[in-house]
Amino acid sequence: MCSVASSNESEALFSHHRRTTVILSGEGTASAYLAGALRALTDAGVRIDCLVGVGAGSLVAAMAAIDSGSRLAGKEGFFAHMEADRPWRYRRLYFLSLVLLAACFAVFASPVLFGAAALLSVPLVALTRFLSEQPAEGVVAPWLGRFVAAAEPFYLRALVVPLIALCALWLGWLVMNALKSRRAPRLPAPFELGRLERWLTTSLWKAVRGTSTDELPRSREALGDAYRKLLAGSLGQRGYAELVFYALDTDAGQEVPFVLLKDRFAKKLKSARAARVDRSAEPIDLAREDGRLFFDALLASLSPPGLVPSVPIQLPLGSSHGGEVHRFSSSLLASGGVVADAVSAGAEQLVFLSSCVPGDKAVGNAFERITEAALRRNLAQQISEASRVSDLSVFLIRPDKQRLGAYETFGRAQVGGEKLGLEALYAHGRRDAVRLFVTPVLGDGLRPEMESPSVSEALQQDLPVGPREL
């Protein structure tokens, strides 16, 4: 039986000659922490055979699988875009609704605002009259009365017009949605994926375009084809790894693995899932499907359910729901069988990279607290499941405290005017990986005979210095 190795006993459990799988799980800003921790492992010479991504870990896994994880950080990287602008923005329907509600509230509160302005003007008027030796009585009240008499006929109209426009806006959306879908309309997600989709397209294309001079791919299919050709042709080379990531089929209620594995491991995973008593969804082999499926599946794995629209994906003809179009989103809130899949795909060593912190206290808004609770529950369940697998070494890298909420993409201000941003979170991930894995597990004597820099040298290269923490 195995357990999560401590710093004293783990040295004897890790071997560079065993198949190593890294499981990355987190949401939103956690991608920066996961990318930093994974970078420290690769800098230390750890050979990673397979990367498994859940939630934001899917992005890091997809980039690192083609030896491009470093493209996420830096001035032109994915994280720089996240810090400059939010990945998601309000849908136009909600944005217009907020504008109309704000206009209605402004009209409703206008008497109070003007009354307050009139009261504040009393001392000024009194002082002016005193200096000019004129009586101050009866100056403000007549002015206020004349204003109320002039504004009263327009007040109710100005108050009702935004409400009528708001009702017309939603009624129009309901009618159009009903005519288009021919079914009962559902409340749309408040945010849209436009920015995230553009950043994902740009980052992936820069990594896989090769000699192409095009700034953007011709289509999603072209992007996906270039990605899988690069990965399939580079498996076995240092820096490249097999890939598994998950998305939740919201129509079928199942967590679906999308895989780019070597044939023998893809067959083992498919057979293992087919034999499960819980009737788990069969894995979708991206190497046998068109490139558009890869991009759509990756985008879905980064789409938190309820916040952004789910991504429609047409399932392959050979699957159980072949030809049907199902909607997919992030599987972070689903439990799934990640460990069982990793073992079925040949894992002999598991390294968990998770953004959740120990303890039972979560910070942030309601959705961030739900996300953190789901992460902790899933991590505990996965470690418990891994501990029941014989001859499986398990290692865990996680932060000691929650530095940023899942959706604090702009960073967090700290005492002294400093700001804890994604680049600093990336640096914290690298330090935690060195502190929890590289130093106690690998040491200096266990580094393989690769032409890689030493750990200290690697960490001195382009490592941003994070702000002072409290």
Short description:
The protein is an alpha/beta fold and 470 residues long. It has helices at 30-43, 57-65, 78-84, 92-131, 140-181, 194-208, 220-234, 263-274, 291-301, 338-344, 366-387, 422-442, 455-460, and strands spanning 20-26, 50-55, 89-90, 191-192, 242-249, 254-260, 284-285, 311-314, 325-329, 349-354, 393-397, 412-413, 419-420.
Rounded to the nearest angstrom, the distance between the terminal CA atoms is: 40 Å
What's the number of helices? 13
Characterize the biggest β-sheet. 9 strands, mixed
Overall pLDDT, averaged?
Answer: 80
Question: Topology as H/E string?
Answer: EHEHHEHHEHHEEHEHEEHEHEEEHH
What's the overall geometry? Answer: globular
Look at the helices and sheets and give the structural class.
alpha/beta
Spatial extent as radius of gyration = 28 Å
Provide the helix percentage: 40-55%
- Give the uncertain stretches in residue-range form: 6-12, 445-470
Strand content: 5-15%
Strand tally is 13
Strand-helix topology:
Layout: E1 20-26, H1 30-43, E2 50-55, H2 57-65, H3 78-84, E3 89-90, H4 92-131, H5 140-181, E4 191-192, H6 194-208, H7 220-234, E5 242-249, E6 254-260, H8 263-274, E7 284-285, H9 291-301, E8 311-314, E9 325-329, H10 338-344, E10 349-354, H11 366-387, E11 393-397, E12 412-413, E13 419-420, H12 422-442, H13 455-460
Parallel strand pairs: 1-2, 1-10, 2-5, 6-7, 10-11
Antiparallel strand pairs: 3-4, 5-6, 5-9, 8-9, 12-13
Helix pairs in contact: 1-2, 1-12, 4-5, 6-7, 7-9
